[in-house]
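Morning, I've got a small favour to ask if you have a moment. I've dropped the whole record in just underneath, so have a look.
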Amino acid sequence: MLIYSLLTDLARQSAAGLRLLLVLTVLLGVGYPAAVWAVAQPMGDHAAGQPVRLDGKVVGSALLGQQFEGDRWFHSRPSPNDHDTLASAPSNLGPSSEDLMSAIAERRATVARTEGVDPQQVPADALTASGSGLDPHISPRYARLQAPRVARANGLETRDVLGLIESSTSGRHWGFLGEPGVNVLQLNLAIARERP
């Protein structure tokens, strides 16, 4: 009789646990994601990762940095993971790391040589990666440093490129958080549209 009672209790508790699992799976695995999706739809591209399109084709996201090479393009910040979204993370190298100091010195020399400026004029965001390694923005100062090179390579006037930088610069969030930034992908698309 005792064994029968224990087995009955076990079966009843197992059935209750299974029902709870099914209800929570439907609520939290289907219902909640569907509700979040529905609420986000009026926000348009903000809910879809802010895709950036060129001729109707998605060429990137306004939220993720990309690597640009060559004189025709503005260059992004360094990335310890080569802008790989699946490996988003900092390098975890601190200011006492010889590897970090060596990488910064190498980057400083490369940027100074590429832009034809004194190494001391190279801004910090040209030398160091963001916390995620995926920051899509550079400082207006770094963008202006690159403007003469990009203008020459694209057959544009430097003042026109500086105007594109100015129009592509976003201010501080809510007027007081963070620093102004220039989205590199959007700026490079503006350059591509202006090329003769």
